[in-house]
Amino acid sequence: MRIYESVFDISKKFLKKNSPVCINEAGIEHTTMLMLKEGPTKFPTIKIQPDISEYQIYKSVLKEFVGCAINYCYWYGSSSIRPLDCSSGKMYELVEQSFEGWLDDFDAVIYKLIELLSVNRFPLLEEREKHLKELIFEGENFCNKVLHIDKHDHLFKSLITTFPGYASDIFLKRASLFFIQMYRQHGWFESAMYELPVPSDYQVPKILKRLDCMEYDHYLTNIIQHEILIPKGSKEECSIRAATIIACKKLQEKTGWNVSDIDGWLWLKRKEVNTPFHLTITTDY
Asked: Are residues 10 and 27 in the same domain?
């Protein structure tokens, strides 16, 4: 079994008897029709630009590799408490800044980014520093492989065995997201887009809940509405993420879309919904 396939098995186990979250098949059917009516969101790729060099593509892979390593938790205690506008967009701006003037000194990039994250008061700074520093020794070598190896299963295993930060999540959200981003930016790993689990985070389950693809029990609904922190690894938190993965797999099978299409369509609707999302302080997402 490929490593990422275990995510689906784990997800199904969390949704067995007495789960606080369940899949609503009627909501899945309705959302499928809505998706097919609207059509998937297509992301422009760097690959279609004829004047871009392999060096520039390699640099873009490095940037995404670094960004995905720390793409998690941008708030303190409440989703509205974000010093200096901490967000994924802000984080990627800092990644861009850390690569300015890059002269093949990857160590300097990492330390510059840690400095920028500190100045901008990002939460979980010690964890982010740890995850960034573990990229230093083999990060460039791995990204070079990404350019020249088209077998995603081999690279996926290499990613989570070489860099423990990427493997720490039972649902492998950031690892899946890296390959999805490579597909979106360069058109690579197309076959993987029909095999990988959706990146299960805060926003996608919020949209699935709004679309009635998932249902929460009364207790879970109450703590989310009152913005009460849900412990990482708890049955409630894992069930939300597990249901997200299974619901998206069902949508994928019914629409024929790949995981990038499903994730993109849902994630881009996040600002249309003002209801609170579940709050868990974690480095997984």
From this structure: yes
- Here the tokens at position 177 are 């997201």
> Distance between terminal CA atoms of the chain?
25
Contact 97, 116 (CB under 8 A): yes
Number of alpha helices (DSSP H) and beta strands (DSSP E) in the chain: 14, 2
Q: Cα–Cα distances in Å, from 228 out to 59, 138, 268?
A: 40, 39, 25
Residue 17: inside a domain, yes or no? yes
Q: Global pTM?
A: 0.94
CA 142, CA 165: separation in Å to the nearest integer?
15
Residue 282 located in a structural domain: no
How far is CA 123 from each of CA 24, 154, 275, rounded to the nearest angstrom?
35, 33, 23
Helix axes 235-255, 259-267, angle to 10 degrees: 120
Could you list the pLDDT tens digit for every one of the 285 residues in the chain? 789 999 999 999 999 988 999 999 999 999 999 999 999 987 766 555 667 788 889 999 999 999 999 999 999 999 999 999 899 999 999 999 999 988 789 999 999 999 999 999 999 999 999 999 999 999 999 999 999 987 888 899 999 999 999 999 999 999 999 999 999 999 999 999 999 999 999 999 999 999 999 999 999 999 999 999 999 999 999 999 999 999 999 999 999 999 999 999 999 999 898 899 999 999 999
- Residues 35, 73, single domain; the answer is no
